[in-house]
């Protein structure tokens, strides 16, 4: 088999020579049947017989890694793909800086690595569960197809983590793989591991916000794990990042298209005030302030995914060479952080202030800052859409301390601009800052499916171009 190409001869497509690894192949085949049960009961509801124009990974080289074709989702070729090995790769940070990367799990870091892989793995099926009912209200076949593409790839990312668990962690790896199929998003008895993955994704605006903000946390975390000294994890994450880019495109362009449609309708109807809710909603589009509230919600939930500002877990993972900083290999410093400091947001005398803390312990804070910068770029692009239509409104990221449930500011009440306030004041403003039941009801009322090829629901603009350059009226999903 050529390096980089996928072997479709095996029951599980892979580029890791699974055919010669009978033990792991057998274990994965056993897991596969439980996986398909999970997919049928928790995957997209009602579309298992539909034929979907999907991309499937056929290699890991940058050019031509994917093939597009019609496929029924349960027949999707979920495979195990690792980026090509980099010969002579060494550990790029921490106490083992410069040593050759590990091809097996180092005993001392077994528990730590397993925990990170399980957490990463847990988020993937969780997002599929969260998005399970969205197919029923898709604004177009183009969007429906994108939803399913995201779903099958998140499910493939679960495969990726399960492969690592089965191959490198023996009996406890097999046990954890089974557990990944039993937890359920939002289930009070057996919830998914991280907060944001137990929230609902009830409508398409939430879906686009989730793929913009929460998938971007996925990108940041995968970038850090791609730096890992445990080479199979690094190679796995490097390839996952190739797929992840499309998910964030779905989010950013989806929100951009909703903004464009709202502004266009406002302009055509002569409405200048973006806060004229009644008039704007009467036209069947989503007002910009409601979109800001949804952004406030999804951004703050996603910030929680970075853990506490000060974290011994993060410091230990870095020193061990297990989880690096965002694009560690592009940072020009000592890569050890022994005596370095990082300006970290702390609650001091009732105020949020940046103070210098140990850079090692403040790694979550640093990554969150990288994330905030990455998020703000999309907002700039959305603001250009608004500006071009001549409407006075600017999307803003809320302050880091707004609406937080994890870390230094959990339990603190703050406004989106970062003023610490009383709970009463927060409650008074709640519906101005976060979606109200009325906002959710209004958005829900718009969620009527549009299934004619080339047509779009009235609240969202058509995309600039088709998937894989397909023409406007292309039937992305043949609904059965
Ligand atoms: N919810 O030391 P701390 C993605 C726990 S998204 C609940 O502050 P640490 C995707 C924490 O587990 C990316 N619990 O944090 C996106 C710990 O518990 P234990 C997923 C939380 O460990 C869209 C305790 O609080 N990948 O791929 O430095 C669609 C103290 O924690 C939360 C990863 O996250 C929370 N939000 O950092 C599909 C990468 N936050 O152990 C997919 C792997 C913290 O004391 N995970 N806790 O019981 C990690 O690197 C780290 O575990 C975290 C937390 C960044 C999540």
Overall, the morphology is globular
Radius of gyration: 23 Å
Strand order across the biggest sheet?
2-1-5
Main sheet makeup: 3 strands, antiparallel
Straight-line N-to-C gap? 37 Å
| Overall pLDDT level | 95
Total helical segments = 12
> In terms of per-residue confidence, which ranges show pLDDT below 50 for 5 or more consecutive residues?
none
| Number of distinct beta strands | 5
Q: Kindly name the structural category.
A: mainly alpha
What's the oligomerization state?
A: single chain
Fraction of residues in H or I helices:
40-55%
Strand fraction band? 5-15%
Listed once per kind, the bound small molecules are: benzoyl coenzyme A
Order of helices and strands: HEEHHHHHHHHEEHHHE
Write a brief caption for the model.
The chain is mostly helical and 480 residues long. The chain contains 12 helices and 5 strands.
Describe this structure in words.
The protein is built from 12 helices and 5 strands. Strands 2-1-5 form a 3-stranded antiparallel β-sheet. A two-stranded antiparallel sheet has the order 3-4. The protein is globular and about 65 Å long. The mean pLDDT is 95. Helix content is 46%, strand content 7%. Strand 1 and strand 2 form a beta hairpin. The protein starts with 21 loop residues before the first helix and ends with a strand. By secondary structure, it is mainly alpha-helical. The site of benzoyl coenzyme A has 25 residues, from helix 2, helix 5 and helix 9.
């Amino acid at each position: 088999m050529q390096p980089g190409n996928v072997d479709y001869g095996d029951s599980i497509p892979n580029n890791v020579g699974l055919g010669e690894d009978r033990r792991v192949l057998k274990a994965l085949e056993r897991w596969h049947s439980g996986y398909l049960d999970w997919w049928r009961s928790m995957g997209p509801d009602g579309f298992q017989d539909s034929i979907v124009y999907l991309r499937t990974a056929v290699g890991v080289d940058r050019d031509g890694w994917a093939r597009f074709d019609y496929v029924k989702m349960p027949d999707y070729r979920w495979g195990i793909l690792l980026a090509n090995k980099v010969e002579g790769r060494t550990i790029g940070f921490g106490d083992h800086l410069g040593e050759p990367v590990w091809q097996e799990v180092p005993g001392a870091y077994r528990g730590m690595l397993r925990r990170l892989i399980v957490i990463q793995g847990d988020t993937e099926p969780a997002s599929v569960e969260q998005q399970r009912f969205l197919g029923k209200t898709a604004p177009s076949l183009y969007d429906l197809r994108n939803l399913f593409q995201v779903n099958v790839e998140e499910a493939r990312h679960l495969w990726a983590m399960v492969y690592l668990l089965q191959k490198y962690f023996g009996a406890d790896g097999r046990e954890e793989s089974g557990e990944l199929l039993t937890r359920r998003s939002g289930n009070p008895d057996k919830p998914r591991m991280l907060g944001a993955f137990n929230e609902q994704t009830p409508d398409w605006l939430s879906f686009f916000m989730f793929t913009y903000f929460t998938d971007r946390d996925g990108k940041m975390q995968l970038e850090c794990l791609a730096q890992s000294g445990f080479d199979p994890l690094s190679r796995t994450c490097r390839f996952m990042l190739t797929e992840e880019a499309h998910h964030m495109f779905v989010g950013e362009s989806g929100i951009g298209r909703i903004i464009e449609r709202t502004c266009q309708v406002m302009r055509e109807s002569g409405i200048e005030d973006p806060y004229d809710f009644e008039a704007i909603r009467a036209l069947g589009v989503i007002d910009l302030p409601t979109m800001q509230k949804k952004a406030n919600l999804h951004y703050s939930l996603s910030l929680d995914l970075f853990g506490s500002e000060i974290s011994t877990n993060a410091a230990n993972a870095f020193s061990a060479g297990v989880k690096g900083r965002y694009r560690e290999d592009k940072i020009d410093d000592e890569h050890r952080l022994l005596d370095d400091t990082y300006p970290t947001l702390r609650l001091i005398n009732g105020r949020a202030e940046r103070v210098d803390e140990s850079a090692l312990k403040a790694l979550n804070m640093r990554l969150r800052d990288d994330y905030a910068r990455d998020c703000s770029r999309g907002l700039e692009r959305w603001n250009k859409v608004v500006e071009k239509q001549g409407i006075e409104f600017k999307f803003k990221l809320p302050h880091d301390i707004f609406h937080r449930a994890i870390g230094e500011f959990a339990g603190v009440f703050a406004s989106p601009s970062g003023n610490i306030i009383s709970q009463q004041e927060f409650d008074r403003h709640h519906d101005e800052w976060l979606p109200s039941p009325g906002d959710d009801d209004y958005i829900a009322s718009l969620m009527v499916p549009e299934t004619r090829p080339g047509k779009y629901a009235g609240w969202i603009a058509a995309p600039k171009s088709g998937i894989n350059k397909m023409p406007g009226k292309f039937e992305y999903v043949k609904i059965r």
